[in-house]
Amino acid sequence: MSEEEIEVQAGTSEVKGNIVVNANVEQVTAESVTIQGGSAAQVNAQTVTVSGGGVQTVKADTVQVSDGAIGRVEGQSVEVADGAMGIVQAETVHISNGAVGMAITQHAEVTDTTVFLLAANEVSGEAHVLVDLRAAVVIGVISGAIFGLVTWLLGRRQG
After folding, report:
1. How many CB atoms lie within 10 A of CB 87?
2. Which residues of 117-134 are buried (b: 16+ CB within 10 A; e: fewer)?
3. What are the contacts of 59-68 at 24+ separation with CB within 8 A?
C-alpha cells in the first residue's frame, strides 16, 4: 500500500487520494477507490476498481470489475471481466464472461456475455442479447395498446 492509499475497514469515508475497501461501507468518495472483497453502498470517484466485491451504485469516469458485481454504474468507460452489473450507463462498455441487466452506451464490446437490454450505437463481439432497442420499442407499443384496450373494455363494463 502506498503512502497515498488509505485502507477503510467500515463506515463512511471521504478523502483525497486512494482508498482500498476490505469491509462493508456505506459511502466512499475519493480520487481512486478499490473494493477488494468488500462492499459499498455508494462510490463516487474518478477511478473505481472492484475485485471480488460488490457495490450498489458507482459514479466514476473509469470503472473496472473483475469477479465482482455492481448494481448501477454511471461512467465514461466501464470494463467487466467475469462480473455482473444491473444497469450500466457509459460512453464505452467492454464486457467479457459477464452478465448485464441493461446497458445504455455509445459503444459496446462484448465477449461471451448475456445482456437483457442493450441500447448502443455500435456493438462488436459475441453477446447473447435478450432484448435490443428495437424490440424494447415494439414491446412498449404492444404493451401500451393492450393496456389501453383492457382499460377501455373495463370502463365500458362498469359504465
Report:
1. 16
2. bbbbeebeeebebeeeee
3. 60/33, 63/90, 65/98, 68/35
| Cα 60 from Cα 36, distance rounded (Å) | 17
> Domain residues of the chain, as ranges?
5-132
Residues paired with 110 in a beta bridge = 95, 125
Place of cell 452489473: 85
- In residues, how long is the chain? 159
pLDDT per position as a tens digit, 69-122: 999 999 999 999 999 999 999 999 999 999 999 999 999 999 988 888 888 889
Put simply, whether the predicted model's pTM sits higher than 0.90 gets the answer no
DSSP assignment letter at 139: H
Place of cell 463481439: 125
